[in-house]
Amino acid sequence: MMNLTKFMKVSGLAVALFAVCSSANAQNTLTAKEKKEGWKLLFDGKDSKGWRSAKADTFPKSSKGWIIKDGTMTIQATNGAESQNAGDIVTVGEYGPAFELAFDFKLTRGANSGVKYFVTLKENSGASAIGLEYQVLDDEVHPDAKLGRDGNRTLASLYDLKTSNKTGATKPIGEWNSGRVIVYPNNHVEHWLNGKKVLEYERGSEEFRKLVQMSKHKIWKDFGEAKQGHILLQDHGNEVSFRNIKIKELK
Length: 251
What we know:
By secondary structure, this protein is an alpha+beta fold. It has three helices and 13 strands; from the N terminus they run ααβββββββββββαββ.
């Protein structure tokens, strides 16, 4: 008969293993509550279904940069160039005018990427496809953090438009962060980082259009005001991983 001490050790190990397995299994899935609320997975952790290149109807070949492994979608490091290797990927479907988008991301040291929304693919930028961008960046190392205006190219900012206030919300490089973008039916938009609201703005408002005119986006007609668009994950030549990408349309 197993003595009590040995039983407790074995039981403790079993509980720990169960917790690890449960945590792993919980990634890239929806709870019953989320399903009832209308959430939909954009990435199941297994394959590229629902995604395509921003420049083609097919998903980029794995040898060129995007790897799906261990429940994550990872863009491999190349030379730091913007969308010149594997290139950006976008959802096959389009979303809007109102939705809540959630995603986890993990940066490597010095990395740059972004999650864009309302991407129409109509503009020919020659680089990354055009859209409103939740910036994904290593603020401490990547030089882009010091460019733009008043820090509006830093992590969780509305890229080149509005700076995030993320004091106390950022997790260290190499750990998973949770991002969220909420676009309400009245065009009020919020960026969240690890449970903290870090910025808000009114899409299409006079203030928004003034910000656009002060940014690099001013060359694009009606920038950021499309009624619907694709969700985009950016290839900026650095290694960045994504998981738990899901969306709920709002009415």
